[in-house]
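Handoff note, outgoing to incoming analyst
You'll be picking up this chain. Sequence as last confirmed:
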Amino acid sequence: MSGPPDDSPSLLGAVAKVVAVYGSIAAANAGRRIAAQLAGYLLVGTLFVVSLSFLTVAAYRALSLVLGDIYASLIVGCIFLFAGLIAALIVQSRRR
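Most recent structure output, in case you need it:
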């Protein structure tokens, strides 16, 4: 009346293998998407840092021509300190 007892385990084994294959394919696709996104953000971040460096040097040179080296260093340093404090405030406010 009932089927052979060895059909159940093989069916469950086949289902488990299919689920494992689909899971590994999904994980590989997610890994590729994350890697591509990370590479894009790294490129954008690098370009941002390079442009910020050029702008900082240009601002420093312009200020040093007008005000002198000491005041130019103080002004540029204070601007970066202020930007860092604002960034820290934003990061802390996102945690709450």
